[in-house]
Structures are given as structure tokens and as C-alpha cells.
Please model this.
Amino acid sequence: MATRIYIASDLHAAEKAWRKFINAIKAGVYKADVALLAGDLTGKAIVPILERGGAHEAEVLGVHRRARDEQELAQLHRDIADLGYYSFVTTDAEAETLSGDEHAREQLLERLMTTRVHEWMALATERLDGSNTPLYLIPGNDDEFTIDAALNQPGYGPINGDGKVLDIPGEMQLLSSGWSNHTPWATPREETEEQLFARLDALAQQVRDPRRAIFMIHVPPHDSGLDEAPLLDENLRPTISAGDVLRGPVGSTAVRQIIEKYQPVLSVHGHIHESGGERRIGDTLAINPGSEANHGILRGYLVDIGRKGVELAQRVEG
Amino acid sequence: MADTAGSSAAEQSTTPKLFVRQSSGLVRNVSVTNALFFNVAAFVGVGLTLYPAFYSLADVANWKIGPFSDYGWAAIITGLFCVLLALIFSSLTSVMPRSGGDYVFTSRIIHPFLGWMESWTLVIASVLIIAFEVPLVLRNLQITAKIIHIGAGGFGGANGWFTDATGAITGMPGFIACMVVLIGIGVICLLPTRSFHRVVTVLAGFGVACFIAMFVFGLLFTHKASFNANLPKLDGGITAAQLEAAGKTGGFIATDHRGFFSRIFETGAFPLVLSVLLFQYIGFQYSAYIAGEVRGNVRRGILIALLGALTIGVLANSVYTDVISSHFGFGQNVTWGANYWGFGTKPGLPLGQPDSMPLMAAIANHGLWPLWALISLGGTVFPFLLCPVYINFLSRMQLAWSLDRQVPEWFGQVNERMRAPLNAILATLGLTALFLFFQSFKDLPTFLATSDHKLNLVSTAFFSIAMALLSWVLPGVNAILVKFRRPDLVRNAPFKRALPWLGLGWIIFPVWIYIFAVIKPIVNGLKGGSALQYLEGQGLIDAMLFYVLGLVIYLVMKYRSRSAGVDAKMLFTELPPD
Model:
């Protein structure tokens, strides 16, 4: 009997996608034995909800929204959260001040991020109570270290596998790392290719049998077709030619080397949202489910692993 | 990691209405200008120099009321309806991913089968457009040589290049030349990303410059009187007056005096002209996909990008075309085009070529032949340019099919060296080669090609129009149904409340056209023949075959997936968030 792995990644604080993910596990929609979330849990922006004349107003994706009562305000918060943004109620004056104060914005963002991660862990713990499908997750390069406390808090159901090799159902092992090679944005968890290789190699040496192991590494292997991202100009804007965005490989050479060296049965990645798919690297099936979480769509992959290796790989979305 | 953008972008994006994180940016980061350029490049192409020849493609009596011809009015009306389509696309692309385009929308909103059929038929329609464009590249080369011949001599035998004894680009010479063009297109498709875009940008820039030059210098430096005087000297005595007279007697130019609304709402000829405009606008579906990436105020950005491009497309097909053709004579242009497409023979095909704008300019003003030759070369470049861009789009859709197991996985595999879905690109090129083969050789059975046993450009065009039925209709159905089928996805969509009405408003248009330009002629033809039997007899039966082939592929892949343990139902199972 094969072990079915359900994989998703890069939810980036998108509330609806997280709830879909948890419900898919809870309801056994995909009949998964193990669920994996390959990093990047937190979001990228805050939408201030402004108190004005007894109502609350905000601009969401260019659309002006106005909440007249508490119910509409709750819905506004939820709609913003579904997009993967954070929201907080403030005044015009405070919003104006914050827009010019980077330090204060960062503090606010960290607080909102940590709060949401706590909420997510609590929701997962509550809903997956009694479930036979364990959920393993990792932070990604975008995630601040401040959320680690929430991820590691005792009592929460989801298991933070970052920097560990864990035994998982199906007599398999799971190697996990949320670190990436350098990006143009100096994100919290990134390092040189050499450092990343050393980090991953040290972990891989703890694996008993790579053919019974899954490597969940947030960044995909370099030039694998799972790492095609827009090429950026000197101002970090996408390079666009003839109206189309130029793309190129931005994955990690260290991750590629590790996969080529150890040949795990399955490697699971995220990081590059628009480059979802599957690819063979030697005997390893490498998968990046991609992400459209900010659109409320949960992209995922189902992989059945039997005694002889991968028996089925199927893209799913809900 | 974010898809795009960076800290400086984040800094610029931060306002009192949105605080953007420094360490990463936002997904939406294509500027409005870029999106606009993309849209224009995607669907303004083949007509750069040959738009007047398209007056006659529908083989109906053309007319002119006010400043515009029936073709120009059709361009404007189609454009107005396409505003609704643009709003639908921009709304759906704002809340749903764009890769895979219509396939993704329809699969999720209606059913995966319809998503497959819509995208399959769109791919076939697009491949047919490529097959339509390739001979036009060669035709434009001939025209360019002809212009040089008029101005400076030489190239006397240009009309015989790539042609068989009939003077058409067909048979073995035509096929070989088309294959050479197709290989050139294939080489561009397989260029590394940066080189591909560099080539496309340079060629597009050249094409656009020629487009502008034709309009400005064509009107400034040529005169109808000199055109009329010079034409018979160059084409063995055929005059513009003879052409116009032959057009009236041959039924290519309307001679009755019905009013504007009577012509617009008639159910015979005008829907056919509208169908030709749908054929011209087909790149519009592709161009809308990028709308979801426009940064800033999404609604405003999309409106500027999509509607701006649409405006340019409408102006190109109406004002640009009608002003220049009227400058040289509307009537003679209609008949000249009809004779080129093979609908008429009298008084002959001037200079053995279609009524290309720079060719007419060269007739009127020999002295500026280098300018006209350069513009004509631009007309050669644009259809050539369009093909790799289309193939690039199609390969993305084919990749989406592959991931959804609608086609075997190997089909969408990304080639290690090329970093492109090589198999998908080769399949597209191969199918194009097949259509070019059937345009060149009389090898089609009688039931597919009643008169000549092969496809010609006209039948290829109508074959493509028939294949595009679902691509035009289903976006309207999606807009009507999405609120009921996937309300969670459109809760924050721009124009959310208006979507069903936009869908309803839009769907009237393609349904009207397909009823009166496709179904009615078929019914008439089945009743005992009509003037349109030629069109039905070739393109439409081919189209039906490909609809059936799409159904067969779907069923085979469903069976294959089920045998392999893939549960297609899971692919699109909607997960409840609460």
C-alpha cells in the first residue's frame, strides 16, 4: 500500500488558502497519509483600515471598501486576510505617520505576522485533532525568525520540521529546511550556496536510506524548470521585453547538488510561485506545487510512494 | 519569495493605503505601458499593409456609409463588444491565475471537459492563423520586390517566386518556401529567452514604425490622380475605373441604397464581415492574460492596458484602413482584393498581387520606392513576428494541459537545454506544417475539399473562425455562471456585480455572428447550395473533424489517467475554506 503525500507551499498569510489546506486534510478529500507545507507562511503587506465618520474604509486591490457596521468590518478584515495581507484599524493621521516610518511599520508587521501564525497553528490544532494525517511544515526564506516561537510552541498540532530529519508514516524520513540561496531582497533565511550546501549535507547525512526519504527544501534546485522566475533589472523590477516578462532560473545550485548526490525518492519545494510542476533529477522526483494562494486558490500535489518509489504524482487545486 | 519586485519597489509601493514589506514585493508588477504594448503586439499584425484586401475576404458585397466601409464599421462594432470581453477578462484575471487562460477559467467555472475543448479549439484556430500568415510572409516578400521593380527596375520575375504555374503560393515551390519560413519561426521559438525577446522587440519596433510611416507618408506623398494614371501603365492596362465597375457588376460592391441600420442588422452579409473581424482580433484572448499582473490600481491599470490596446486595434482596422483605401479608391480596392482571394477574375489581378498599401503608394509615387519597400518589408516582418509569439503563448497553454493530465506528461516537459516545452513547440510547428501541406497539395479527400481538394487561404481563415467558436462564447458563459459556480473566487473581483450582465451582453455578439455567419450558411448550403458553399465545403467540415478529435483525445486521456490511478475529479475539487 502506497503512502500518499499531500504537498502545498507558499501560502503567504492567505487565510482562505490555509483554511482550505486544513479542511482538505481534515475531511480526507485527497485521502492523504501525510501533509507537507514547504514554507513561506507569512505575508507581504498591510492594509490599514481607516476609521472615518463612524465607518471603516480601506482600499483593497484598488477597490475602495467601506464597512458600516461590525459585521461588515469583520468581513473586510477577512477579505484582506484571504488575499494574504494583514489589516489593522487605525486613523488617517496614524496611517500617514506609519507610511513614513519604516521601523514602526516593521514592528507592526512582525506583530501581525506572529499573531496570524499563532491563529493558524491554533486552528490547525483544533481542526486536525483526531486526524490520522500529520502535518509537517517549515518556514521559508521570507519568514521572519520571530514566527519560530509560534511554530515550535508545545501543544500545537502541526510539526515544524525545519532543520531536522524526522520519521514520518510509511516508514520514511523527512529532511526539512526553509533556508534559501541569496535573493535580491535580503530575506531573513538566506545564505551563500556553500553555506546552504553545508547545512543540507549535514542533515542529509542523518538520513538512513535516501530512497525512503523526502527532502522538503523551500528553494527549488537550480535550472530545474521549477525555478523559473522573472529576471530583474538594476531597480529590482522585472525585465520586460516585447511586453512579456523575461524569466530565468533562480533556484539553488546547492539544492541541486544535494539532490544529485543523495537521490531522495522525492524532493518538495516552493519559493517560486509561478514555476509549479514536476521534474525528474536522476532518480528523484522534484515537485514545486506553485502558489496562487493570494487568489484564494490552493495549489497542491499528491504523490503516492510505494515500496519501489513514486507510483503516482498528480497536481490538484481547490 | 515574491514573484517579482524588490525593496525599492516596496518603498515606492508603500502609501498610507498600503504598507508593503521591505524584504519582498508584490505579485502584480507589470507596468500599464508594458501591458499595453504586449496587447497591441498580440493582435495587431497581419493587416499592417494588407488590411484593404480583407474587405473582400467574406465574399459579400462591400459598402461604405459615412467615413467607414462595412469592414471599418465591423471593426468598430466588434471593438465595442470586445470592451465587454475585456472587462470580463480583466475581472477574472484579477482573481484567477492567468497561465492557461481560458482553459483555467472554464475548467474551474464550468467543467474540465469544456475547458479542454475551448483551449484545444483555440490552439487549432491559432495554428490555422499561423498557417494563414506564413504564405502572407512570402507574398509580402514578392510585393517588396515588386515595389523595387517599379521604382528601380530588376526583380521582374518576383511574381513567380514561390508559386506554381497558376501564380499562387502553393504546390511544391510554395510548400518548400513555407517550410523555410516555418523553420525560421521555429528557430526564433527556440532561441534563449533573452534573445527571443530581443528579436521580437526589434521586429515589433520596426513593424510599428512602418505602420506609422505608411499612414503619414502614404497620405502626404501620394495622390489618387497619379495612382489612377500610373496603374494601367504597370499592370497591362487595367484601370481603377474598370476595377470598380467590375466590382459592381460582380457583386463585390453593394449597389443598393439601404440605410445604415438596415445593413448593420441584416442577417446575411454583415455577420460574415463581423466574423472576419473576430478572426483579426483573435490575439485579444492572449493579450488579456497579462492583465492580472498589472500593478497599482488594478481596475484602472487593466482598463488602460486592455482598452488602450483595443482602441489601437479598432483604429488600425477602421480609420487607418479606410482612410488609406479611400485615398486610393474604395471601389477599386474591394475588387482588387476579391480578385486576389479568387472570388473574381475581371478585369484581372493588378500586378499579380493583393492591394498592399505600400504597393499602391509605389504606383502613385515611384520616386519614394525605397520608403515603400521598407514599409512593405515591415509588412513582411509582422506576420512572421506574430507566429513565434503565438507559438510561445500556445506552449504555455499546452504546459497547463500537461500538468492537468489532459495530454501525456511528456508533451509539456521542459527541455533541459532549451528551457522550453520543446515537444509542445514541435507539435505546434508540425501541425502548422500539416496545414501548409494541405494548402499546397491537392491531397484532401472530396468530402473535406469539394472543389480543389486542398485548403486555400480563404478556407483556412473560415476553418479558423469555426474553430474559435468556444473561445469566443465561453468567456461570456463563464462571466454569467461564475457568481453561482465559484462565488468564493469572485468575491473581491472588480466589476463583480456586473459580471453576469457583462457576460450576457458579450455573448449576444458571438452567438449572433455564429448563427448568421456559420450556421445559417451551412443550413442554406444543405438546402441545395448557395454562394457560400465554397466556404462551408472546406473549412467547416475540417473544423468538425477537429472538434471530434478533441473529444477523442479527452476521452482517451481520461481513460489513460484513470488506469494510472489519477483521479481527475480531485484535480478541480473545490475545497471549502470554512
In short: Helices of chain A lie at 15-26, 70-82, 92-99, 102-127, 148-152, 193-204, 253-262. The two ends of chain A are 26 Å apart (CA to CA).
